[in-house]
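STRUCTURE:
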C-alpha cells in the first residue's frame, strides 16, 4: 500500500509523510509515527555509508595528488589541484587502455578518482544531496549496492563505447538518480509524481551539461543511470519490500570489493612513493 504524502509547510511540495523532515528542503514536518519507522529501520546507517563513500573519495584523491609527479596548482580553475595521468592510471583510472593493461579492477577504482578539486567537490556535493534520499526510500544497504553497480555499469558502457581514459564518481551518482527516477515512476501518486518531475529535471540538466561542457563522459553518465534503474527494479524499495538478508550480503560484498580494490591501488601508489625516497 502506498504511504500518504504530506505538503511541506516550508516549500509547499508533496513529500513522504513517513519522515520527520521534508525530502525536498529538509524542513521539519508535523509530528507523526514516521520517525519511529526511520529509527527502527536503521536510516541512520545511511549517514555512515554516505560519509564513508565521501571519506574514501577524499583520501584516494589526496593520495593521487601525493604521488603525482607534476605541480597540482596549475591548470586554471578546472585544473586546480589536479593529479597527473600517470598517478591516476596507477591508482586505477579506467577506459579502453587501462582495462586491457591493468585489469577489470579499474572499473571499480575509477569511481573513487577525480581530476581536480572542483571535480571531486561537485561530485561529493551531489552525493550528499541525493544519497540520503535514496537511503530513505531503498535503505542504506541497497543504496550502496546501487551506487557500486551503477558506477561499474557506467564504465562498462564507456569501455564498449571506446572511451580511452576516464575517472570520477559521477557514473555512480547518476545511478542514484536513475534509482530515484524508477522509484517515482513505480510508486506513483502525488509523491511519486513529484519525485519523477524533480529527477527528470536533473536528467535534462545532465544531458545539457554533457553537451556543452568538454571532457564529460556522457557514456558513463548514461550507463550509470540505466544501471541505477535496473538495480532499483531488481532490489525493490521499502514501500514494496523491506531490506532483507540478501540485500545486506550484497552490500557487504560491494564493501569488501571496494576496499580490496582501493587497497590494491593504494599499495601500488605507496610503492611508487617509497621508490622515490631511495
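SEQUENCE:
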Amino acid at each position: 500500500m502506498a504511504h500518504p504524502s504530506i505538503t511541506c509547510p516550508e516549500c509547499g511540495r508533496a513529500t513522504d509523510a513517513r519522515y520527520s523532515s521534508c525530502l525536498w528542503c529538509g524542513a521539519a514536518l508535523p509530528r507523526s509515527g514516521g520517525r519511529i519507522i526511520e529509527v527502527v529501520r536503521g536510516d541512520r546507517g545511511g549517514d555512515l555509508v554516505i560519509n564513508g563513500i565521501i571519506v574514501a573519495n577524499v583520501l584516494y584523491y589526496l593520495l593521487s595528488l601525493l604521488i603525482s609527479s607534476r605541480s597540482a596548482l596549475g591548470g586554471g580553475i578546472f585544473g586546480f589541484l589536479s593529479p597527473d595521468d600517470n598517478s591516476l592510471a596507477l591508482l586505477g583510472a579506467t577506459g579502453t587502455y587501462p582495462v586491457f593493461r591493468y585489469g577489470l579492477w579499474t572499473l571499480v577504482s575509477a569511481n573513487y578518482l577525480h581530476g581536480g578539486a572542483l571535480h571531486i567537490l561537485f561530485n561529493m556535493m551531489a552525493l550528499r544531496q541525493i544519497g540520503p534520499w535514496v537511503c530513505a526510500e531503498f535503505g542504506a544497504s541497497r543504496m550502496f549496492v546501487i551506487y557500486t553497480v551503477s558506477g561499474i555499469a557506467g564504465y562498462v558502457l564507456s569501455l564498449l563505447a571506446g572511451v580511452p581514459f576516464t575517472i570520477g564518481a559521477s557514473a555512480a551518482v547518476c545511478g542514484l538518480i536513475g534509482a530515484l527516477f524508477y522509484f517515482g515512476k513505480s510508486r506513483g501518486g502525488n509523491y511519486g509524481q513529484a519525485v519523477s518531475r524533480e529527477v527528470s529535471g536533473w536528467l535534462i540538466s545532465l544531458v545539457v551539461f554533457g553537451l556543452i561542457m568538454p571532457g564529460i563522459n556522457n557514456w558513463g553518465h548514461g550507463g550509470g543511470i540505466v544501471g541505477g534503474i535496473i538495480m532499483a527494479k531488481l532490489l525493490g524499495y521499502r514501500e514494496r519490500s523491506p531490506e532483507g538478508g540478501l540485500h545486506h550480503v550484497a552490500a557487504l560484498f560491494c564493501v569488501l570489493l571496494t576496499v580490496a580494490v582501493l587497497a590494491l591501488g593504494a599499495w601500488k601508489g605507496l610503492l611508487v612513493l617509497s621508490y622515490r625516497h631511495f
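REMARK: The first strand starts at residue 5 and ends at 7.
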